[in-house]
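task queued by scheduler; priority normal; single chain, no ligands, no partner chains; default sampling; output format set to structure tokens
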Amino acid sequence: MTSDPVLSIRAASKTFGSRKALDAVSLDVGRGEMIALIGPSGSGKSTLLRSIDGLQTIDGADKGRDARDGGVITAFGGPVQAKGKVSDQVRKARIRIGFIAQQFNLVGRLSLFSNVALGSLGRIPFWRGVLGLWPAETQTATMAALHRVGVADYAAQRANTLSGGQQQRGAIARALVQKAKIILADEPVASLDPVSARKVMEILRDLNRSDGLTVVVTLHQVDYALRYCDRVVALKAGKKVYDGPASGLDREKLIDIYGPEFEDVFWEGAPQ
């Protein structure tokens, strides 16, 4: 990791009623890293990812453990949120951050081409996007992105007629048109069959290794985390309980993270 992180989280906490979804989580993400966020359901993975993009506010510093430094998130050196409020400069960060959700977030009635072209809205007049009057640069970038993820043949097809895997690849293509430097992927393969899931993970890994994009992906499939990501961060009950190389996650650590039941569903070929 570089000494100048592209993402920095300092003592981020989030409380929902009496439940603490995040408990003073701190994390630095270096440029060009591919990090898996793992942990049991309800451990705070999605809350942390949404907080990084400013889609979820974190608690103010008075609710954290460090009244001076707690509850601060920055991206590219600029503020995303602090003291329980999203920064008025968050739009600058979001333009450079692509967010990929589990349910694809495509507009079903629009063509795949139009959905992917929407990634350019941060750089072109809004009215052009509303009317579908895409500049030549956007059209070229959209087709290039669709080719890159292997779904160019479906460009004219309505998004709601595509398979889950095809839609998710479209969502990745939209982030490419957006010219995102960071991709945040929240359970991007949870709704996909194993073949489609592997293809999506391979695309994310290729974008990380070939294009140098920073990727942070939440996963329930621990084997995917170990296979595709060099660094793994594990959350449990809102706290960070592991942050290190994927190779350092042995059976004992995984059982500590997920509980003894994990032994019963341990996958074939997992670390011994």
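post-processing summary
- The first strand starts at residue 7 and ends at 16.
- Residues 1-96+183-200+214-272 form a domain with the Rossmann fold fold (CATH 3.40.50.300).
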